[in-house]
Design goal:
It contains four helices and four strands; from the N terminus they run βαβαββαα. By secondary structure, the protein is α+β, with helices and mostly antiparallel strands. The two termini are 17 Å apart.
C-alpha cells in the first residue's frame, strides 16, 4: 500500500491530500506528515534527511519517489480524469522538478501555513500513520 509523506504545516500540501482522498475512494493511499513520528521513521529507514520538508515523498513497496515524480505517481492511483495527467512524465524530470521546487519554495507565502498538522476525521484516521 503506498504511503505519501507531506508537509503537515503547508496549506497547499493539505489541499493535495484532501484532493487525493476525494479521488481515491478505495483508500489505497495512506498518509503521514513529514513532521510525525511515522514520517520521521520512514525517512530514517530509507536514509532520507530528516529535515527534508520541501517535497512530497511517496513510498511504494521497496522504492520511493520525491518531488514531481511523487506527485505524478500518485495520479496513477486516482479514479478520475486526473489519472491521465500522469502523461506529464513525458517532460524531463529536471524540468518538472525545477517547477516543483519553485512552487515548494513559495508555498507558505502563496498558500499559507498551519501551526498544526491536519487532524483527520474518525473515518479517515485509518489512512493516516501517526506514530
Amino acid at each position: 500500500m503506498p504511503i505519501l509523506l507531506f508537509d503537515g504545516h503547508c496549506n497547499l500540501c493539505n489541499a493535495w491530500v484532501n484532493f487525493i482522498i476525494k479521488r481515491d475512494p478505495p483508500g489505497r493511499i495512506r498518509f503521514a506528515s513529514l513532521q510525525s513520528p511515522a514520517g520521521s521513521r520512514l525517512l530514517e529507514d530509507h536514509k532520507i534527511d530528516a529535515n527534508y520538508l520541501d517535497s512530497l515523498v511517496l513510498f511504494e513497496e521497496d522504492k520511493f519517489s520525491v518531488s514531481s515524480s511523487a506527485a505524478l505517481r500518485i495520479l496513477s492511483y486516482l479514479d478520475g480524469w486526473e489519472r491521465h495527467l500522469i502523461s506529464l512524465r513525458l517532460f524531463p524530470r529536471p524540468l518538472r522538478d525545477l517547477v516543483y521546487r519553485f512552487v515548494a519554495k513559495n508555498r507558505y507565502r502563496w498558500f499559507g501555513r498551519r501551526e498544526q498538522c491536519m487532524v483527520p476525521t474518525i473515518e479517515l484516521s485509518k489512512r493516516f500513520l501517526t506514530d
